[in-house]
Amino acid sequence: MREANLIKTVAALRVALAELRRTGARIGLVPTMGAFHEGHLSLMREARRECDVVVVSVFVNPTQFNDASDLEAYPRDERRDLALAEQEGVDFVFAPSVADMYPQGFATTVAVADLTESLEGAHRGRGHFDAVTTVVAKLMGIVGPDVAYFGQKDAQQAVVIRRMVTDLNIPVRVEVRPTVRETDGLALSSRNVRLSAEERRRATALHRALARARQLARGGEREAGAILAAARPELDRASIDPEYFELVDAETLAPVTRLNGRPALAVIAARVGSTRLIDNEPLGGD
Q: Which residue from 214, 230, 226 is spatially nearest to 279, judged by alpha carbons?
């Protein structure tokens, strides 16, 4: 197990990476907001397998929260995160302050049009994704990674970041890894710790609905309306009224009325108690 170096300023990280970059080391970046779970750790393992140097950022980005109470309640445990990163062989844990990431006079926003206006953008506000793309662009500029690793659970985020990287000619490969789940199917999320036992039980309905949609698509059903109608009872039985439950194109995020051979996603967002959860399931279009 290699010791992870905790670095808290942009300047210090740049110094630490400069010599490694000159030697031609392949650098991997895993952007996170901390509160590590197995989903984060799986990304670290993939980065460790593919790269010479692994940087994990831990930054609870205040600008992407549209609810102050959600920001306040977001779990934070730097000591635990550092210990887990060390177990996975991470080289650097970058945990900057808000003041270092957004110094006085900061006035730049990186915005991706169209892809950010539906689904999460419609429910959390366009500013949510502007905040995500701005902070990810900053992290890529600070670290200069060869590869950046993200989870499929945040499917829309991954599509948006890929578009940003392409449009801005950022020389980084975006690697999106499959969603990691509990044994009962619930997608791992740092927010899961806020669910009561009863809410935790109900929350598994999200994945059951998605799994039902996938089963129907694999069984030959092509009409989105029929797929969603057959899957919706899983949510109803758990008394979950989703903010959205849709079939969308996996690249454009446009609503799909009929599976037509292109990759698609079943996507869902819902509040279970006071906790907002999102999930998705890739669907083949064939």
A: 214
Closest Cα partner for 157 from 187, 185, 123, 130?
130
Give the chain's domains with CATH numbers: 5-177 (3.40.50.620), 190-281 (3.30.1300.10)
Q: How far is CA 156 from the centre of its chain?
A: 8
User: What beta strand segments (E) does 95-171 contain?
Assistant: 147-151
Cα distance between residue 44 and residue 33, in whole Å: 14
Counting as low any pLDDT under 70, the low residues of the chain are 1-3, 285-286
Residue 173, SS3 per DSSP = strand
Tokens at residue 18, please?
């400069």
Q: How far apart are CA 66 and CA 162, in angstroms?
A: 23
pLDDT value of residue 64: 93
In single-letter form, the type of residue at position 8 comes to K
- Residue 284: what pLDDT? 72
In this prediction, residue 67 carries a pLDDT of: 79
Whether the CB-CB separation of 282 and 259 falls below 8 Å is answered with no
- Looking at residue 87, its pLDDT comes to 97
User: pLDDT tens across 193-204, in order?
Assistant: 999 999 999 999
AA letter at 87: Q
Residues with catalytic roles: 40
Residue 282 one-letter amino acid: P
